[in-house]
C-alpha cells in the first residue's frame, strides 16, 4: 500500500503537467502566430527593403531560424584582446525561405561574424552592452549585411542573449 500511493501521485502529476503543457501550447501559438504575422507584414514602407510586389510573392508566414551556436566576438583595446562578447542570434524570416537557410548557414555565419568584428573594431558598440542604442545598431547592421546574401524574406534579427567576458 505504501508503494501504490506515491505511484498514483506521480502519475497524477505527469497527467496534470501534460495537460497544462498542451493548454499553454494551444493558448500561445494561436494568438502569437497571428500577431507576429500581422506585426511583420502589416507595416508598409517600414524599411524592410522590399516593395509590395516582393511581399506578395512571399507566403506571409513568419518563422525563426536558429543558429547552431553563439557568436564569440573579441573586443580589442589597442593591440590586445580586452574581452569577449558572446551573442546568441535568431533570424525572423518568411516561411518560404526557411528551408534554404539551413544550407546557407556557413555563409550566414561568416557574414554575421564579419559584421560583428567590424562593429568591434569601429568603436564602443560592443563595449557597452547595456545601451539600447547599441542593440539597435548591432541589429540593423547585421540585418543590412545579411540582406546582401538573402535579399528577400529576411524580416528581422533577434538578439536573444548577449554576455561579455573580460580577459
Return the CATH topology of the largest domain.
Answer: Tetrahydropterin Synthase, Chain A
Estimate the strand proportion: 15-25%
CATH C-level name of the largest domain:
Alpha Beta
Spell the H/E element sequence: HHEEEHHHE
Q: Tally the helices.
A: 5
Corresponding CATH architecture of the largest domain: 2-Layer Sandwich
Q: How many domains?
A: 2
- CATH superfamily of the largest domain, called what? Band 7 domain
Helix and strand content put the structural class at: alpha+beta
Report the uncertain regions: 28-56
Explain this structure:
The chain has 2 domains: 1-42; 52-166, Tetrahydropterin Synthase, Chain A (2-Layer Sandwich), CATH 3.30.479. 51% of the residues lie in helices and 24% in strands. Helix 4 crosses helix 5 (132-149). By secondary structure, it is an alpha+beta fold. The chain has helices at residues 4-41, 52-57, 98-103, 105-122, 132-149; strands at 62-66, 71-77, 80-94, 154-166.
Key features?
167 residues; alpha+beta; Tetrahydropterin Synthase, Chain A; 2 domains; four-stranded antiparallel beta sheet; 51% helix; extended
Q: How are the elements arranged and paired?
A:
Blueprint: H1 4-41, H2 52-57, E1 62-66, E2 71-77, E3 80-94, H3 98-103, H4 105-122, H5 132-149, E4 154-166
Amino acid at each position: 500500500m505504501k508503494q501504490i500511493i506515491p505511484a498514483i501521485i506521480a502519475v497524477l502529476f505527469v497527467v496534470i503537467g501534460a495537460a497544462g503543457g498542451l493548454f499553454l501550447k494551444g493558448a500561445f501559438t494561436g494568438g502569437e502566430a497571428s500577431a507576429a504575422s500581422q506585426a511583420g507584414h502589416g507595416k508598409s514602407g517600414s524599411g524592410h527593403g522590399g516593395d509590395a510586389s516582393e511581399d506578395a510573392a512571399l507566403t506571409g508566414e513568419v518563422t525563426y531560424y536558429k543558429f547552431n551556436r553563439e557568436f564569440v566576438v573579441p573586443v580589442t583595446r589597442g593591440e590586445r584582446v580586452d574581452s569577449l562578447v558572446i551573442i546568441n542570434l535568431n533570424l525572423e524570416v518568411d516561411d518560404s525561405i526557411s528551408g534554404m537557410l539551413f544550407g546557407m548557414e556557413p555563409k550566414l555565419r561568416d557574414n554575421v561574424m564579419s559584421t560583428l568584428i567590424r562593429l568591434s573594431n569601429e568603436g564602443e558598440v560592443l563595449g557597452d552592452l547595456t545601451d539600447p542604442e547599441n542593440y539597435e545598431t548591432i541589429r540593423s547592421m547585421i540585418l543590412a549585411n545579411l540582406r546582401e546574401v538573402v535579399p528577400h524574406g529576411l524580416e528581422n534579427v533577434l538578439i536573444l542573449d548577449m554576455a561579455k567576458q573580460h580577459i
